[in-house]
Design goal:
Mean pLDDT: 92
Number of strands: 9
CATH topology of the largest domain: Rossmann fold
Order of helices and strands: HEHHHHEHEEEHEHEHEEH
Number of helices: 10
Distance between the termini: 22 Å
CATH superfamily of the largest domain: TPP-binding domain
Shape: elongated
């Protein structure tokens, strides 16, 4: 890992006065006990038919089934806490922001980056600790409304899951839904996703750092498209198979929880 660490350190120092765009996927939260979606770990959720269940269509056709599936899926988030990878990115934000710009875009809905202290943060797929009204235009629905999950009654539904106990919007009475981006929805569907901010950063970035992602979603496609257009250097930190494509990138095949703390130690030692 030493050569990769040296390369990453040199790139970060060389581009410190510009915009560092960091994009994280499920791999960074694996060390916090949260299974990945497309990863190779044995509990990867992607083995299930998530493209059918994680949709607005399924929610409208079977709100009970949708709520049961999501509450089961969110069980792994209950006791999850930020790991050393999350905390290292907080340090990286402070280091980069001293001379340049920094933006962290996460595909994850676990809110662990926010819990760790990241500030220049876009949660582009929403958050599991929030829900919103299923009716667009309601004050608690898209394009800007939401309420904390802690403020709704899920226990009644869990005790007796049926249509009558699905949590309801306190404003209009429609079914509440998860505040997450579904597969049949667009990034522009809610202001919290901050899609315009992501597009702007993807087109302006001087250095891109991808962490724990298989590069298989719309946001990574956008970022790699911008990197290809602008010849922006790209570093991928992910222990999975080598990524190949139209963008030349440096892949570091180790876990984020191992590499990111080492990277911050390397940067700090050179600044001392």
């Amino acid at each position: 890992m030493n050569d990769a660490l040296e390369t990453a350190t040199e790139l970060l120092r060389a581009h410190r006065e510009g915009l560092l765009l960091v994009v994280t996927g499920a791999g960074i939260s694996l060390a916090s006990g949260i299974p990945t979606f497309r990863g190779t770990d044995e509990d990867a959720i992607w083995s299930k038919d998530v493209t059918e269940l994680g949709t607005h269509h399924f929610f409208r056709s079977d709100p009970v089934g949708s709520w049961r599936w999501y509450l089961k899926r969110f069980e792994s988030l209950t006791d999850a806490a930020p790991n050393v990878g999350h905390r290292a990115l907080v340090e990286l934000e402070r280091w980069q922001s001293a001379q340049g710009e920094f933006l962290l875009v996460t595909q994850n809905i676990d809110a662990l980056h926010a819990a760790a202290g990241s500030e220049q943060l876009v949660e582009v797929h929403g958050r599991a600790d929030r829900v919103r009204c299923g009716t667009e235009g309601c004050e608690l629905g898209a394009p800007r409304g939401w309420i904390p999950r802690a403020e709704i009654d899920q226990e009644t539904f869990l005790a007796d899951p049926k249509s009558e106990t699905v949590p309801r919007c306190p404003s209009c009475g429609d079914f509440l839904r998860q505040h997450v981006l579904w597969f049949d929805e667009t990034y522009q569907g809610h202001e919290h996703y901050q899609w315009e901010r992501v597009v702007n950063a993807a087109m302006r970035a001087d250095l891109v750092l991808l962490i724990g992602t298989s590069c298989s979603v719309g946001v990574t496609e956008l970022v790699l498209q911008g990197a290809r257009r602008n010849r922006t250097p790209v570093i991928l930190v992910d222990p999975g198979p080598l990524q190949r494509g139209p963008v030349k990138l440096k892949q570091i095949r180790v876990g984020a929880e191992e590499f990111l703390p080492a990277l911050m130690e390397s940067l700090s030692s050179l600044d001392a």
